[in-house]
Specification:
With about 200 residues, the protein is α+β, with helices and mostly antiparallel strands. It is built from 7 helices and 9 strands. The strands form 2 sheets. It has a 6-stranded antiparallel sheet with strand order 1-2-3-9-4-7.
């Protein structure tokens, strides 16, 4: 820009800032930043509210990386939105089937964890496919409104639910529980675990 168009550095900064603002809502980190600024909160204030360091929030806003399921859940709760809305934005409903591997991928749940949205738009059920790599986990226990159902498609999932204890679920096993119970989970096996996970109402 400086050589081709003869722009000053201040003009270049302004152009880049404008382009950045236009694409601001395209990532989960940018959505968190927009929500934080709308409430006139500093990075430190948000970090204190969700129990992490300011550097974690700063990195997450810039890269959409560095937080696990528990922290992402806390951020969503703080702003009174669901994790799915925070991750994908508000999607219109599209009638008809969602084909294999065609659901929108949500890549913000932590390292080794991939999720796909299996239904779109505002619905009573939040339906996802989770693929959890060996050793990956929820990074602590969390809870939220509603009820949930999970069905293990492949691999092994170890889940701990307050009042129910720790359970080892293998392919073909399922579990239904109240989401207000503190729960945490991990993949203790040597292969990836695939889970059909449904929350209702759409609170996750």
């Amino acid at each position: 820009m400086r050589l081709d168009r003869g722009l000053a550095l201040s003009e270049i900064r302004q152009i880049l800032a404008t382009k950045s603002a236009k694409g601001e809502a395209r990532t989960v980190g940018a959505r968190v930043r927009r929500l934080r600024l709308a409430r006139r909160l500093s990075i430190r204030e948000l970090a204190d509210a969700v129990g992490v360091s300011a550097s974690v929030i700063s990195t997450f806003e810039r890269t959409s990386r560095g937080v696990g399921v528990k922290v992402l859940r806390s951020i969503a709760d703080f702003f009174s939105v669901t994790v799915t809305t925070l991750s994908l934005g508000v999607e219109p409903s599209r009638p008809g089937p969602v084909r294999r591997n065609a659901g929108r991928r949500i890549a913000t749940f932590g390292e080794g964890i991939e999720t796909r949205a299996l239904a779109t738009g505002p619905k009573l059920m939040d339906c996802k496919e989770w693929v959890i790599a060996p050793g990956s986990h929820s990074d602590g226990a969390y809870s939220h409104a509603g009820e949930e159902f999970l069905y293990v498609l492949t691999g092994v999932l170890e889940i701990t639910v307050d009042g129910l204890g720790t359970m080892r679920l293998e392919a073909g096993d399922s579990l239904y529980f109240d989401s207000t119970r503190q729960h945490s989970w991990r993949n203790p096996d040597g292969q990836a675990c695939t889970v059909l996970w449904i929350n209702t109402p759409a609170s996750f």
